[in-house]
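Progress report, Aim 2. The chain analyzed during this reporting quarter is listed below.
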Amino acid sequence: MSEDIKENWAPLNVFFEKLKKLIPPQESKIKILQDAIKDSTGIVLQKEKIKIKNKFVYLEISAVQKNEILLRKERVLSVLQEKFPKLEIIDIR
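Predicted structure tokens for the chain:
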């Protein structure tokens, strides 16, 4: 009898294991942004240095890094729009 119960609950266990591995939406946005900045500028940012509020990205980094990213802002935004159109980031500050 207990084997039948285990077999019936197996799909739920698989579901809960997948649920545990999901990345929260804010973290996934930051990861996508990190990848776009790295692809466009070669700069690797720590996730703690990136804040997303509404549709704006705020970078808490050195002035040199920020200037380098802002010089290529259009490229970063176009990479984001191309790969992830639902992300809806309109500006980097």
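The mean pLDDT is 85. The first strand starts at residue 50 and ends at 53. These observations will guide the mutagenesis work planned for the next reporting period.
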